[in-house]
Design goal:
The complex is a heterodimer.
Chain A: H1 22-30, H2 42-46, H3 57-66, H4 69-76, H5 84-88, H6 95-108
Chain B: H1 8-31, H2 34-44, H3 48-61, H4 64-69, H5 71-98, H6 106-110, H7 112-115, H8 123-151, H9 166-193, H10 200-208, H11 213-234, H12 242-254, H13 265-273, H14 279-283, H15 285-288, H16 297-305, H17 311-315, H18 322-326, H19 333-342, E1 350-353, E2 358-361, E3 388-391, H20 394-398, H21 400-413, E4 417-419, H22 430-434, H23 438-455, E5 459-462, H24 465-473, E6 480-483, H25 484-494, E7 505-509, H26 522-531, E8 533-535, H27 558-572, E9 579-582, H28 585-592, E10 598-601, H29 602-609, H30 620-634
Parallel strand pairs in B: 3-4, 3-5, 5-6, 7-8, 7-9, 9-10
Antiparallel strand pairs in B: 1-2
Classes of the chains: A mainly alpha, B alpha/beta.
Amino acid sequence: MEKFGFSLTKARVIDYDANDRSIVSYILEREPSLNLCIECGCCSAACTTGNFTGFSLREIHILLKRGENDLVRQKIRKCMLCGKCILVCPRGVNTRNVVFLAKQAFTKNEGYEF
Amino acid sequence: MNFDPFIIPFNIGLYFILIYAVVRSVIWFRELSRPDKLRLQRGFFGKAFGQSLKEIFLESLIHRKILKSNPRLGYMHMSLAFGWFLLILFGTIEADIFGERHLNPPYKAIFFKFFSPDHGKTFFEASYAFLMDLILAFILSGLVLAVTKRFFSRVVGMKKTTKLKPLDKVALTSLWLIFPSRLIAESLTSGAYGTGSFLTGNLGAALASFLPANELAYPFWWLYSLSLGTFFVLLPLTRYLHIPTELFLIFMRNSGIRTGDKPGSFSEVEVHSCSSCGMCIDVCQLGFSAGIHTIQATYLMKGIRNSDYIHDIAHNCLMCGRCDQICPVGIEISPIRMIVRRIEENDRVYENSWNGYFRNRLNVPAPKQDNKPSYDFLPAPVSKKADVLYFAGCMTHLTPSIKKAMVKILDASGLNWSFIDEDGGACCGRPLMLAGNDREARELINFNSQLIWKSGAHTLVTSCPICYKVFRESYYLDVEVLHHSQFIKNLIDEGLVNMNFLQKRVTYHTPCELGRRSGVYEEPKEVIRHVATLEPTGYDDENSLCCGGSLGNIMLSHDKRRGIAEDVTARLTANDPDSLITACPLCKKTLAQATSTRVVDIAELVAEAIADAPALKKNPSRHKKKVVRESAASL
């Protein structure tokens, strides 16, 4: 077969049915204010950790809601819980508790190694 | 007459509680750490002993602290505790002097009138009977208050009183029955024999006029003995365990033992010393500003005692320290709350055995963790050499006006200073500690410590009381740590900055972490008085309020925080000041959202007041930087 220098990239599909949403439902049950998030990114702009790395709480929120827990697990431990994100959030999301609960959910859930 | 079957319940109860007290004390002593054991021994045979006795008299019997803050509630506690003590003391003396022989068993003193019904005829005996009646009346007056408080708590000046568990109610009922049954039993006996003084004598005569007094007295003596016995047997299972435990607590505390950060014998003694008096309920801002009535210190203590699920109670707290301040027993509530926060959600610390009469402390496994660092992305610490370091902290970076003001003040001071986290540094670690994540916090502490060591500075100035507290208590640094209000106070004292007096009326909000948590009250107020007119608010110093933004509470919703902030600003700006001054960037941010009054940090106020006259000496390094910047701009 002739090769023309093109290749097909692997499909980047987010499969909501297959993804595990148990972590986000654990969090939402205890911190319903996460539902208010409009993903504006103010938290990421103010973030102390974000100053050193590409860490973004907005990204974490999106990943959590999609159920891409492996990515969240790697990233979330970078948070310093300093609380700047709460003060800048225009929707009043209790962001610190979201991170706290996510960490808790990962340690509780036997399937995940933290 | 020396014996009657009705004393059996009392004797069982009394000897049970005495044996129990000895066994429990031995267990508690054995579980103390070695240094604490030595401390207690030294305290018991040293100077602290007298101090402890004095404190036991003033606090456990007279209830001085409650009397001071709430006279009616104090009287209630005093009449029951001190009155009962006097009744036992004088009862024993009475039985010893007037009884058939000296050195009687305890029941002889308690039921003296039953065994010596003829007593009280001569003048001296009658005057002694008058004294005994007086003490009984003193107790009964307190009991009337206590019963009324249970149903109408406002009578004793409390908005809310504690909710009780069923066993507490049984014990409470038996406690309430003790003194009325004694009154009626003594009165009926007195009525039958024509003795007794103004209380028992008159009541007895009245009852005897239409009732068979002698026959009726016997069941009431049984009731008196039964209620005493029931109370003693139930005591270890209920909040009344605080009566003996508090004595132990006072001895331990005066010997220098502190709560620490792990569950241990002392924290257990503290938990059992809580009398559920409910003083912490009324001062709690989550209660009176946010409508949360389940998490107050007394419920935390109750939860720990009963091995309940207390994860939410422990975390839903502003950690403002208002309850630590008011607690009449002096329990270190916040350290105990922090101990509970460090424990994983479902781990229990205690296991009850012997139906709850004894508790075994479980060895809580260390939380699952790897040693993989969480913050390995932090760069290698590099810092400039300087004498004075300025650490703004996360929250100050969010309020740039404070940062600018501090830069102006530090420049004007002419000191050789350096801004460690000018481009944003790592967090100080206290927010992680408050959430119970000490291991992670230690990483940040190491990072910041290296930054500070490498600069060779002798003074560290921070704008944030949260950072100030953790720098002072959890960092091992040999630098002087100052909050910026203290630093400015030093500058004023040394005459390093010139300031104008501003024609402003201001009120001051004491941040919890700076005031109650670190004991810095005077310096900020002196700085404010130096540049403006400071007016009192009624919520000064130890009585200051939390702004509601506290990082100590991870669960509180935005609306509740907002509600607390609005309540606080309304109270602090009641006399309509020009500005509301605070000394914490987090408080400023929280309060500013809730009021139309201008909220200003103390540094901003001082920066505003700094005279424009040329400062003594510019910081050479910063000056150079500015020149470079200006030349770059001109290009």
